[in-house]
């Protein structure tokens, strides 16, 4: 469903100059990968065996270009992913693996709800882990010129796993973007954070829930997860506050938000921390305070809507009530969102790809234009904004 933790690839050590090459003959590209692998110190015979059966995967490219689900607004997206069945099953899994979660929380400080939510969304608690050939997927996406710098390092990580006897290029399968196992980890993540939690001598992310959950927790910990701190809390907001202060780029002490009239919908706000005010569908829709741990989610997945939904579901699994949808203003269709992005781009805003998805760049541009036009600057694009532009 998602390119899990692809941001890790951006932090890897610089590769040889050829590492940025993409496109051209696929067979020639694979031959270049094999030569580069040997230059990196991989065993020539192992590299030859690993790359000998690699095939380009049209189905991977199709999946990469068909992520329309992320065009849905938060309320629809969350209601689509969070069902009574998923919630009930999550609660059952929490009990089934209670000792595992207790050990994870003691060791890594990652709450069980956080891991259960990822487990649910990524593979439906391990029920569907993807049937794409992982080696083919990674090489295909490396050859494709959209994001080769993200996927190419993962090819060499998969080769390293193969040399360790932990990966079979012919039979290892997973998601279309190369993630493997119950919580969907990329090869580099497995090398850096894989944990043999069940003590059988192997890191088995596809068949061992303790291994998968503990490895996921280790990865979140490496991203900077802060033990004992919250990640997301639903709040109530007063009418007429300065909406330009909302968004993940603005962080304030919680007491400052409280002074502005923000209050917890249930429980208490976490004083002593900073937080951002999140209005996924504008000032008339649901509202959340996102604490520092929320930012760690973006190292797992870079979709704002996915991250917010996963973080919210984690709170539900730990007892939070269903969010108050309130009455958000009507948003834009996918076609209208693309039209908006073009108009924003024409005004000099960097909105990234024209894809109809309300990502971080589009939200920032919308908020700036709303402020310029005297509209509530809540980063939620409406037909009225589109008309004004």
UniProtKB/TrEMBL annotation:
Residues 333-389 form the Peptidoglycan binding-like domain. GO terms for molecular function: peptidoglycan lytic transglycosylase activity. The keyword Phosphoprotein does not apply. GO terms for biological process: peptidoglycan catabolic process. Residues 1-21 form the signal peptide. Residues 26-314 form the Transglycosylase SLT domain. Keywords: Signal. It holds the Pfam family PG_binding_1. This is Lytic murein transglycosylase. It comes from Roseobacter ponti. The lineage of its organism: Bacteria, Pseudomonadati, Pseudomonadota, Alphaproteobacteria, Rhodobacterales.
